[in-house]
Design goal:
The chain is an all-alpha fold. Helices cover about 75% and strands about 0% of the residues. α1 packs antiparallel against α2.
């Protein structure tokens, strides 16, 4: 069997894994494809994104629950807090392993083989920023700062490269969505987050009339997430004392 046929078979297995929600296997399939091909088609990079998004997303959800438990002030909970913290650290280690794995693939393979493809470059740099952001979410002190600094660098490079894409391009809009969440949740730069999200939204609005049906749907879906976050953030002061919902971070945009 040729390498091309072998990769096609593995991609098919990844699609089966997606349909059956076996995302850990899907991740392994797509990691194998990256190592074999070095450069991915649009469909393949979407599969790669979906696989890692779901694998890390489940752990991020678990971490949020455990992090909330560890802060509980409920009477008598101190005895269980140590067990909760131990379990939380286990989940943090899993998130760390997943993020470092995809970051290695992005930095050492995928980004080195897509220089001529503006859309792929923005896609992969955005992914780097996303997974470094996830590391910053679950770490503290110096490691958090290092992850946040690297995430900011990746997002900024993606932002610069994204100027070659139309303002309504879903990848460019998804980048603005996720970069603004990074500013808001990790860097605590609220004004900058709102400015970035609003500018991306306003710029895209001016070009919506040039899109066909599918392109219009893809763009407006992400624009709605930008608007939702802007509404959430602007209303935060009015909801002081209540737990704020997690902002939409655009991790579904690669599925479009």
């Amino acid at each position: 069997m040729s390498e091309q046929d072998s990769c096609a078979e593995i991609v098919f297995e990844a699609k089966l894994a997606e349909q059956t929600e076996r995302y850990d296997e899907m991740k392994e399939n797509m990691k194998e494809v990256v190592k074999a091909k070095k450069s991915l088609s649009k469909e393949e990079r979407n599969l790669l994104s979906v696989a890692y998004k779901n694998v890390v997303g489940a752990r991020r959800a678990s971490w949020r629950v455990l992090h909330s438990f560890s802060k509980s002030k409920e009477e008598g909970f101190d005895k269980q807090r140590e067990l909760v913290d131990e379990y939380r650290r286990k989940v943090e280690d899993e998130i760390d392993d997943i993020c470092e794995e995809i970051l290695t693939l992005l930095e050492h393979t995928l980004l080195k083989n897509c220089q001529e493809d503006a859309e792929a470059t923005v896609f992969y740099l955005k992914m780097m920023g996303d997974y470094l952001r996830y590391l910053a979410e679950v770490t503290e002190k110096e490691k958090r700062k290092q992850s946040a600094d690297r995430a900011c660098d990746a997002y900024n490079k993606a932002q610069e490269a994204s100027t070659r894409l139309a303002p309504t391009n879903p990848i460019r809009l998804g980048l603005a969505l996720n970069f603004s969440v990074f500013y808001y949740e990790i860097m605590n730069l609220r004004e900058k987050a709102c400015e970035l999200a609003k500018n991306a939204f306003d710029l895209a609005v001016t070009e919506l009339d040039y899109l066909d049906g599918a392109g219009y749907k893809d763009a407006t879906l992400i624009m709605q997430l930008l608007r939702d976050n802007l509404t959430l953030w602007s209303n935060e002061d009015n909801e002081a004392g209540h737990a704020a919902p997690v902002a939409e971070d655009g991790m579904d945009v690669e599925d479009l």
